[in-house]
Amino acid sequence: MAAGERLICDSSALINSGDGVCFDTMHRGRREPAFAIRYEGRVYAYLNRCAHMPIELDWRQGKFFDGEGLLLICSSHGAIYAPDTGECLGGPCLGGLVALDVEEREGTVVLKESGNGG
């Protein structure tokens, strides 16, 4: 693994529209909760922070998708987000989710952390 990268999970831990994997990352000099999910075969990662208020989205550890597995939903406010872009699609949100740079390779999901901490 290259410098500035770290392992998040094995690829097999992420199932399409299934539970996410939670982890911490540095963002703007602060340790922040984050999560990775798989949607339509691709892996995406975001800070685990609603765009409406800085609270975690999941209602239970790793539970980010709505009942149909089509949208990410904030358990506290009902704001909904596109899983592939983090864009707010409805509800009380100001902007979208903060995307993180992840890559899937050789059966693993890797976070590419920038040198400036986010």
**SSE order:** EEEEEEEEEE
Number of helices: 0
CATH topology: Rieske Iron-sulfur Protein
Specify the structural class: mainly beta
At the first level of CATH, what is the class? Answer: Mainly Beta
Q: Mean pLDDT score, rounded? A: 91
The residue fraction in helices comes out at under 10%
- Uncertain segments: none
What is the 3D shape?
globular
Strand arrangement, major sheet: 2-3-4-8
The overall strand count is: 10
Explain the overall architecture.
This protein has one domain: 3-layer Sandwich (Rieske Iron-sulfur Protein). The protein is mainly beta. Strand 5 (72-73) and strand 6 form a beta hairpin. Helix content is 0%, strand content 40%.
Can you describe this structure in just a few lines?
The chain has 118 residues and is an all-beta fold.
Please describe the structure with a list of short key phrases separated by commas or semicolons:
118 residues; mainly beta; Rieske Iron-sulfur Protein; 3-stranded antiparallel beta sheet; 0% helix; globular
Topology (SSEs and partners):
Layout: E1 5-10, E2 21-27, E3 30-39, E4 42-47, E5 72-73, E6 80-81, E7 88-90, E8 99-100, E9 102-105, E10 108-112
Antiparallel strand pairs: 1-10, 2-3, 3-4, 4-8, 5-6, 6-7, 9-10
